[in-house]
């Protein structure tokens, strides 16, 4: 590139020296402008503009000298050229030559290099995971990358040629914000920008546990047949993976797609695990990696409509309880072997975890169909809505007593007892901060016109409560009030 700049600078200097006249500089300016347009149009892939620039250069460099030979000679002949309007000193010619060379070389390099964003996002993977540990990138994060590469190499620029990683070699159990590193298998590719440049990674111990294997069917067998009781060998497998992932898993799944089969099915099958929405979870290892299936096909019983039973796992946050659980749709039509179908009363959903929730939850769940039972209609998922309510507690409190209607000639001397105890109920978060000043006991003494001691009955309607609080009981039911003359 340096050699290219030097050569172009020398040639430019010679040209400036030869045509250092008003006419020559104007002509050279047109040539330079057409050249810049030619290179720029190539860089931004504008073919029509590129063709126009080519035509302009042909006219200027070929047609002009041939058709206007005398004018051309006048430009190049020092004896006939007009004196320059603005003479270019050697220093200015040197600077212009170097600047022009840098411009041309830079644009030429740019026109051969393409800058762009990779069409697909790259998944982020954790590398150098310590033995006995597992690392998961939060939320299955992916990165977008901005790259530059020679135009002829862009055919080999595919998402598979890149890898995005976070290094967890020195991390113990916990969650970390780590830098993302992107590498390319194509040597000529330069990575200009990564977004996001950091990712949250959870590092956890690997745990193992044994779970049963169940078969999940889709499609239909032929000749009004349905799967009978499947024989699975082995019927239990060991799964291993991140602690937070394995803890909630209760089974491994074999997916079998029926497509008009009329003979018993015998095959090897790989395993997977699913969340409550039926999505396959990654990062789980199975031992063994596959099982042998033998599935008899039996005559289907009649279609039966059964209820759908929502299954909840865990408990909501402290201070809340499950007020109601609704399922939509609430029933599903199923078919299967006659014996199984006759005993079937409902179909459970996959477990919905409500541990620690503090607001209403709605989620699409798959049906956990018993082996040999298949759905006879289009229902594959149901909407389960969990409605929460705040747990109500009680609290004893001494309300503030407010006296109204006292005769102007009288004054309050004393009361007996000195305080009222009221029991109120409400949500725990409201009662925790409740004070006696927020609950008012209003006593109307307008009926008493002379000094003396009177027994004033207390009613529920005498209490003023704040929103979310209700009155349970109070003691005593009457209070002694002594009035004196002022």
Task: Please give a structural write-up.
The strands form 10 sheets. Strands 1, 2, 4, 5, 7 and 8 form a 6-stranded mixed sheet that branches. The protein is built from 8 helices and 35 strands. The N and C termini lie far apart (109 Å). The protein folds into 5 domains: 2-112, no CATH class; 116-204, RNA Polymerase Alpha Subunit, Chain A, domain 2 (Beta Complex), CATH 2.170.120.30; 206-298, YbbR-like domain (RNA Polymerase Alpha Subunit, Chain A, domain 2, Beta Complex); 304-390, YbbR-like domain (RNA Polymerase Alpha Subunit, Chain A, domain 2); 393-485, Beta Complex (RNA Polymerase Alpha Subunit, Chain A, domain 2). α1 (2-18) packs across α5. The chain is an alpha+beta fold and 486 residues long. 17% of the residues are buried. 22% of the residues lie in helices and 43% in strands.
**Strand residue percentage:** 35-45%
The number of domains is: 5
Low-confidence stretches: 81-86
The helix-and-strand class reads alpha+beta
Kindly report how far apart the N and C termini lie: 109 Å
SS element count, helices: 8
The beta-strand count equals 35
Shape descriptor reads: flat
Radius of gyration: 43 Å
Roughly what is the average pLDDT, rounded to an integer? 82
- Let me know the largest β-sheet: 6 strands, mixed
Helix content: 10-25%
